[in-house]
Every structure is written in structure tokens, then in C-alpha cells.
Amino acid sequence: MRGYQSRVHAVLDAALPAADLVPQRLHAAQRYAVLGGGKRLRPLLVYCTGEALNIPVAWLDAPAAAVELIHSYSLVHDDLPAMDDDDLRRGQPTTHRAFDEATAILAGDALQVLAFALLSRDRTPGVSAEARLKMIQILADASGTAGMAGGQAIDLAAVGRALTLEELEAMHRLKTGALIRASVLMGAACLPGLSTAAWDALDGYSQDIGLAFQIQDDILDVEGKTEEIGKTSGADAARAKPTYPSVLGLEAAKIRARDLKQRACERLAPLGEASQVLAWLASYVIQRRV
């Protein structure tokens, strides 16, 4: 895990514009938003999917970095006053607090397009043009109105409302789950000739852990401490946002997360023993404290 985190950090560092290039403030904000820590779960999913499928690790660098750039852009924009109005992210001031709102908006915009530039310009030997195009399509679909952006719009409209479990999960399959799913499928897309059974197994796995990840996030918002989770605890309740604990209750939410993790691991059966790294990652998703 630490090896993959270090690897993607180096790829991101090289892909981001240097802070001393014009416009310096914008480039500094981009680097601040991306390189300031984080779990790197989405790149981990890319790399671990590749490991399970015996894909050369160099093939996975561009998709791993691209999905983290999209994730980082989304956090910059989600933290803005017009969205969630957060002051703390990854244990440090949010990008709009460290710089200013206009710079944060532009930094997010630039990170988004950099992700697709990175994928389209990658020339790692062994990765076909068809695979690159498929990864671009997967990431674009996961980022737009049928994915992350659409889920965020639904989330904003749901503030102060009571949602059913079905409505809550439909929202989070888009807001959080779509990019987690894309991380797994982008890794799988690197391998030519992958069987339909293996693709479907990874697809189902990714959807289950996407929801499990969000449930654990909601649990940590209740149980976590600000200094541990790196963001303000209790923020969801303060904003009257519907969450798994508010809809199901805290203990039932924990049970739901465990059930999703178990189902995710069961879905990996067609991949055999090689999938153990993904099963471990599913456990990490619901056991993490940050």
C-alpha cells in the first residue's frame, strides 16, 4: 500500500506544473490540492486491480494519477462556500482558504483537464490506443452528470430532506461510487482480452466497495475526531445532510458496510487467488479510521 502511494505521488508530482511557472499562484494551488496527503484509495484500486490481473505496474501509472487528479479537483470544488463550505481537508486548510475562492475554482478546472491530458498523451509501451480511449471514456462517464457531478447535485438538493435507503444509495452510487468504480475498471481496461466474467466480477466488486466506503465515511463523521480524520467531524449533521447513520442508525450502518464488503469479496471468485489483494483492500475500506 505504501509503495503504491509513493509511486502515484511521484507520478502526480511529475505531471503537475511546477509552482514557479506562470501563473505561479494557480500552479501552487494545484500542487497544494493534490500533493498534500490523502489515502490515495482510487490509485490503490487501479494498482491493486492491475496486480490481481498481472498487469505491468507501469501501464497503471497514468490511470492511477488521472483518477486522483479528478478526485482532487472534486474535493477542491466540493469544499467551496457554494457547496459544502469546508475549512479543513486532509488536516490542513482547504484550497480556497489557503489561496482564495477564484484560484480554487481555476485550480479544480485545471486539475480536471490535466487528468484527461495525462491519459491521452501517455505512451507507455504495451498500452494500446484502444485501451487509452476506453479509460478516457470510463473516467469521463464517472465524472459527469451520470456520475460524480450528478451525485453532488442530488446531494445538495437533499440537504434538510429525509431520504429512503434506496434514494441515499442511488445518490452515493453516483457521487462517491462512480469514481471508485472507474478506478477498478480503468485498471481492468489496460488488459486486452479480459473475459466478460472477470470484468463483471470487478464491476460488481467496485460498486459494493464504493457504497461501503461512503458508509464508513459517514460513520467517521459521527465517531471520528477532527485531528484524526483530517476534516471537521460532525459536519454532515450540522448541515442536515442525509447519511447512512441518519437513515439507518449507526449500528445498522456498520452492519450494512460489513455486508457490502463481504459481498464484494464474494464477487471476486472468478479471479481466484490473485484477487486477495482486492479483498484486503475491501477490508481496509471499512476498517480505516481516516
Low-confidence stretches: none
CATH architecture: Orthogonal Bundle
Separation, N- and C-terminal Cα atoms: 15 Å
Secondary structure tally, helices: 16
3D structure, described in words:
The protein is an all-alpha fold and 290 residues long. The longest helix is centred in the last third of the chain and has 28 residues. The chain has one domain: Farnesyl Diphosphate Synthase, CATH 1.10.600. It has 16 helices and two strands. Helix 4 runs antiparallel to helix 10 and helix 11 packs parallel to helix 16. The model has no long low-confidence stretch (mean pLDDT 96).
Summarize this structure as a short list of keywords or feature phrases.
Farnesyl Diphosphate Synthase; 290 residues; 16 helices; two-stranded antiparallel ribbon
